[in-house]
């Protein structure tokens, strides 16, 4: 199949394109930032570029992994988010319908599920989040526009019969957290595999599963994160003393962490349940918290990327400037 991949120069795009090719697909990358996997340099808001690329490359399906993300709020205004995340998605959906495609995959984010009330919780039981969680009240322009993009996919599936799958991915970015500095980056990332993180490799694999199933689903919405070891009835204990819950499930975790100089989470305020993706898409992340502990037991580096110096290609090249319509590579997702 010939696939258009947006965000092809970014963190997810660079992991996804080789997997698509290994599965036998031909990939054309579109991104505002040049890169080794990007053949079309420009914005998804450029209707002529999108139409020309689809026709010239004989594109049969679109994976829309490019967007403006939460850190971009400090760099650009709300209009840029609307242009890229909403209008850009609409442009691609209309092009897909005009070209007679039968599948479209959108990279969305769990961030849109986190309201100010959830984020501000200082105590109480952990919130259990799955595809049925709501009502949704995104806390910033990033979440608002990604929720709108999801709505467009739902609309096009219903009105045009386009097979659309939306993947709300948890965290997989390699850089430091931009809001939580309580723990060293690798320690924080390892903890997040308990409840809200996945590797970029697993994120890429989820997109392949979505691509295959899209025509048969009509519309599908799936949360994608490492499988949590917790159950719903752990929620109260997680909000009070998460480290004890982890130690009960993984008895050697405290010692393994201590040997590395790490800390288990004191409390966990929310847990992502990716069970629906496993049941319907047949997809389950390969790397989970148990895999993190396996690496610690064997003295290996943890099986996830951590790069404090990482910067998305467009940011490092100054791609957002006067008159630019930015398309941030799909490198950062999740709250």
Describe what this molecule looks like in 3D:
This protein is of the alpha/beta class. It has one domain (2-316): Rossmann fold, CATH 3.40.50. Helix content is 41%, strand content 13%. Strand 4, helix 3 and strand 5 form a beta-alpha-beta unit. Helix 1 packs across helix 7, helix 2 runs parallel beside helix 3 (78-98) and helix 3 (78-98) runs parallel beside helix 5 (141-160). It starts with a strand and ends in a 19-residue tail after the last helix.
Short structural description:
This protein is α/β, with parallel strands linked by helices and 335 residues long. It is 41% helix and 13% strand.
Shape: globular
The main sheet comes to: 7 strands, parallel
- The number of E-state strands comes to 9
* CATH level 1 name: Alpha Beta
Mean pLDDT, nearest integer? 92
Count of runs of 4 or more consecutive helical residues: 12
Class per helix and strand makeup: alpha/beta
Distance between the termini: 33 Å
Poorly predicted sequence stretches spanning 5 or more consecutive residues: 319-335
Rg from C-alpha positions? Answer: 19 Å
CATH architectural arrangement: 3-Layer(aba) Sandwich
Q: What order do the strands of the largest sheet run in, or round the barrel if closed? A: 3-2-1-4-5-7-8
DSSP helix fraction: 40-55%
């Amino acid at each position: 199949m010939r696939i258009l991949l947006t965000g092809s120069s970014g963190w997810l795009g660079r992991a996804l394109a080789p997997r698509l090719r290994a599965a036998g697909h031909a990939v054309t990358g579109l991104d505002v930032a040049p890169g080794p996997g990007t053949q079309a340099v420009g914005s998804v808001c450029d209707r002529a570029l999108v139409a020309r690329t689809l026709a010239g490359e004989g594109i049969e399906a679109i994976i829309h992994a490019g967007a403006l993300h939460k850190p971009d709020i400090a760099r650009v205004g709300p209009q840029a988010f609307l242009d890229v995340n909403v209008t850009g998605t609409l442009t691609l959906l209309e092009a897909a319908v005009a070209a007679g495609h039968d599948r479209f995959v959108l990279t969305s984010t769990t961030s849109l599920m986190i309201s100010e009330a959830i984020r501000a919780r200082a105590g109480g039981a952990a919130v259990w989040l799955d595809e049925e969680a709501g009502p949704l009240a995104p806390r910033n322009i990033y979440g608002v526009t990604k929720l709108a993009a999801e709505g467009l996919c739902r609309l096009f599936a219903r009105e045009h019969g386009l097979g659309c799958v939306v993947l709300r991915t948890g965290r997989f970015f390699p850089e430091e957290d931009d809001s939580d500095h309580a723990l060293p980056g690798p320690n924080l990332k390892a903890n997040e595999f308990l409840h809200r993180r996945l590797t970029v490799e697993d994120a890429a694999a989820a997109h392949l599963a979505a691509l295959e199933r899209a025509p048969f689903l009509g519309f599908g919405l799936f949360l994608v994160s490492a499988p949590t070891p917790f159950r719903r009835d752990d929620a109260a204990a997680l909000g009070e003393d998460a480290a004890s819950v982890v130690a009960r499930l993984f008895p050697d975790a405290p010692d393994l962490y201590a040997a590395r100089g790490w800390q288990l989470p004191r409390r966990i305020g929310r847990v992502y349940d990716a069970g629906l993706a496993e049941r319907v898409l047949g997809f389950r992340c390969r790397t989970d918290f148990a895999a993190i502990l396996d690496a610690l037991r064997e003295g290996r580096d943890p099986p996830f990327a951590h790069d404090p110096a990482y910067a998305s290609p467009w940011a490092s090249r100054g791609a957002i400037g006067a008159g630019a319509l930015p398309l941030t590579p799909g490198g950062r997702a999740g709250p």
